[in-house]
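hiii, so i know i said id send this last week but things got crazy w the move. better late than never?? heres the sequnce for the chain we talked about at the cafe, plus the structure i predicted for it. fair warning i was half asleep when i ran it
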Amino acid sequence: MIEVESDTDRSIRTVTLARPEARNALTIDALEELEAAIDDVEEPVVYLRGAGPAFCAGADLETVSDLDGDEERAEAFARLGQRVARTIEDTPAIVVAGIDGAARGGGLELALACDVRVGTPDSTYGEPGVSFGLFGAWGGTVRLPRIVGEGDALELALTGRSIDAETALRMGLISRIESNPRTVAEEIAANADDTLTVLKRRLRDDAGRTTQEEREAEAFVDLVAAHADDVDALLE
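okay and structure toks below
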């Protein structure tokens, strides 16, 4: 259900949610495969996409139904989704979500964990769980308000409505609209691997300001030493 492919120069790993007949809904096995595909990445950039007409419909509803009120299994399923989202968020690689078609529920939550979200003109976004008495529990209630603001997050979650790409762009849910989102992954991959890793670490640092500034200065010193020749070349 998860397909992995690397470029010939190993600059981008493409991870495809490959269950188009179910709009790439995620089962337990698929979540574990996705975790493994991100966890062992060696490429500096990961491009996460969905096969077929949807990015990801979220959690597989048959899987959710099979939980059948079992509190331990329900919690384990939520924790698995959270762990996969954290794996995406914490990997040193830059993870770009290329969203074509629907990103719903858990699919949107996994996209929220990515570093960059790029939608096609046909992409749509929503957290429909409230309409059947549930909500996304893969970290979405933490990340959504952080990314779009509390007001828009509450409105999206409480109404369950879906929004189009232009609305998502205005909210800051996605950063660009591109007919081929992979071009953004390629644009990022053209830069120095070590600098990408440092920038991700610094921009995602949630420590206090003083600690962040100390870490930023230390990282800058390291990169100046590593890329002195590149800087000199700019002056020639």
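btw The two ends are 50 Å apart (CA to CA). thought thatd interest u
miss u guys!!
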